[in-house]
Amino acid sequence: MPSNNGIIFKAIPDGYPVIGEHIELVTREIDIENFPLADGDILVKNQYLSLDPYMRGRMRNPQIKSYVKSYEIGKALEGHVPKSYFIGLLGMPGFTAYIGLNKIGKPKEGETIFISAASGAVGQVVGQIAKIKGLRVIGSAGSDSKIKYLDELNFDGAFNYKTRNIDEELTKLCPNGIDIYFDNVGGETLDIVLSHLNDNARVVACGMISRYNDNNPHVFKNLMYIVTKRILIQGFIVLDHYQEVDSFQKEMREWLKQDKIKYKEDIVEGIQNAPEAFLNLLTGKNFGKVIVKIC
Amino acid sequence: MPSNNGIIFKAIPDGYPVIGEHIELVTREIDIENFPLADGDILVKNQYLSLDPYMRGRMRNPQIKSYVKSYEIGKALEGHVPKSYFIGLLGMPGFTAYIGLNKIGKPKEGETIFISAASGAVGQVVGQIAKIKGLRVIGSAGSDSKIKYLDELNFDGAFNYKTRNIDEELTKLCPNGIDIYFDNVGGETLDIVLSHLNDNARVVACGMISRYNDNNPHVFKNLMYIVTKRILIQGFIVLDHYQEVDSFQKEMREWLKQDKIKYKEDIVEGIQNAPEAFLNLLTGKNFGKVIVKIC
Ligand SMILES: NC(=O)c1ccc[n+]([C@@H]2O[C@H](COP(=O)([O-])OP(=O)(O)OC[C@H]3O[C@@H](n4cnc5c(N)ncnc54)[C@H](OP(=O)(O)O)[C@@H]3O)[C@@H](O)[C@H]2O)c1
Ligand SMILES: NC(=O)c1ccc[n+]([C@@H]2O[C@H](COP(=O)([O-])OP(=O)(O)OC[C@H]3O[C@@H](n4cnc5c(N)ncnc54)[C@H](OP(=O)(O)O)[C@@H]3O)[C@@H](O)[C@H]2O)c1
């Protein structure tokens, strides 16, 4: 009988998940001949598995309600499973970039956008769409090779927030202030950005990955700017917008054809490496959209 | 020669302003006969003086830019100076309530609104407009007599946040969650409210008075709800909206005629009592719109 591997959710982590303690690879056998299929069911063989930060949010106490249900202890982690680009650029993360930027950011030619986690699955798409729309695009990321990639994407400026002073870099790279902040990280970066925003700026609250595994909240100093600068901060969940996925994919394919968009994937071979790849995603060791190639 | 009293700005306060150190009453003489008036100038005699929380924001280092210019050391504090209701219900605070609620809150019949500093110059108007529009209206304020007033205004629920547990009260009074939070105070209250908001809730960021004199920022624990509950937080400054003041005053006068709106004023006699009245406003000892009756 063929074997079937799954990453099992074992216990709710408090900080970063620990492999073996909170998540673990389990191999089981699957009897394909006698697999119980109801009428209309299909048994699929996965080729690619997507790892995304939101999966950390599902490793929670099931009593805490949120936009996706929590993982069940003892069951496999669920994820999205289509062909490579369909889990990245043309899939959920690319669509997240498109919806967040257009619906909340409302970009206008000549404006300045700043993007955190700018080389990631979502961030790299945000920056390239913003360039297409004629914005000045500044990004931050956590390694020099990521910054080099942002330069290749023709970002107008980029800096490594781990080795540079965020406040100083923003002062230098955004001399006319920031009109849109596409926030993937929350915490300290968000706080510093508030002081660089222009009047009527928009903050696209896409994610707060710096907080997912850290139980010591950041102490915000600049929230009063929300009032005095008439700032809009708005969260969104991409799942709410799937009625627009067709027009998104159409526009994105056009940009791809015209060579206006690149997409960096971080492909991990073998499901046995998925737990570590997930940890790498949560600690910034990934570079681009994390995809597990299963077969 | 008649004397002319003014409250002079003496030094930039760090926490609460201290009378004598940061602000002080100064009496000068004014030579009405020979007062230097340019063509078209009018010399006015003030009857009422408005004291408002934003005046604390003007007592800052002039190098910090904001929506109104900072006060100049050695000069008198400027304020708004028309007839009683024109500095309250029909003036700046009433208009603030109207604009913030309508433009950002976007109230819909049957929704639940929560208002902090609900008995104040702005808050009492927000609550009454929301009642007219068919919302469930809950408020918090800092004394039992203020809560009694909110009951008189037919609020659906109100609590004294100084003697009650905010989280427990909101659980009890907003069993279906909160759709609109009209935020006058920021800080801890805002943080707790985030956990009670419904999906797609709106936070009207009107002011953060709990922070104006306090240099120890609140440690926010619930900001991630902005993403997961698709929350909108938006700041505004009423000055930006004066093109709509006529339609506001028309609607408000109609409500007044129909006895749908009451307005509590906290009238202080004599400009010599203005510094203390301003301190009272910043510490919550006022009750309703603070107005100084000058003559
Ligand atoms: N709202 C939605 O519907 C929606 C949908 C998809 C994704 N998201 C959110 O969007 C954000 C980006 O997701 P993604 O899929 O594009 O992931 P990603 O950027 O490909 O990977 C996560 C990146 O976050 C950065 N990071 C990790 N830990 C961090 C920390 N402690 N502080 C600061 N940065 C840290 C790392 O980049 P650096 O090396 O540059 O730090 C890491 O590579 C996440 O917050 C995610 O939850 C939201
Ligand atoms: N965005 C704009 O354009 C605009 C325009 C006008 C006013 N505002 C803002 O709206 C808010 C209300 O202004 P208002 O004129 O209506 O003042 P108000 O409510 O009449 O007076 C201020 C009230 O704030 C409360 N307060 C004072 N210190 C506090 C603290 N440390 N923590 C919590 N609450 C505190 C007190 O009420 P309790 O006893 O109930 O605590 C006090 O009575 C202020 O934040 C102000 O800056 C904004």
Describe the overall structure:
2 copies of one chain form a homodimer. Chain A is of the alpha/beta class. Chain A is built from 9 helices and 11 strands. In chain A, the strands form 3 sheets. Chain A has a 6-stranded parallel sheet with strand order 6-5-4-7-8-9, sandwiched between helices. In chain A, β7 (178-183), α6 (187-194) and β8 (197-205) form a beta-alpha-beta unit. In chain A, α2 packs across α3. In chain A, 43% of the residues are buried. Chains A and B meet through α7 and β9 of A and α7 and β9 of B. β9 (232-235) of chain A pairs antiparallel with β9 (232-235) of chain B. One NADP nicotinamide-adenine-dinucleotide phosphate (NAP) is lined by residues 52-54, 93, 96, 117, 119-123, 141-143, 146, 184-185, 206-207, 209-210, 236-238, 281-284, 286, 289 of chain B.
Question: What composes the largest sheet of chain A?
Answer: 6 strands, parallel
Q: Which spans of chain A of ≥5 residues are poorly predicted at pLDDT below 50?
A: none
Order of helices and strands of chain A: EEEHHEHEHEHEHEHEHEHE
| Multimerization status | homodimer
Shape of chain A: globular
- Main β-sheet, spatial strand arrangement of chain A: 6-5-4-7-8-9
Mean pLDDT of chain A: 92
The first-to-last residue Cα distance of chain A is 17 Å
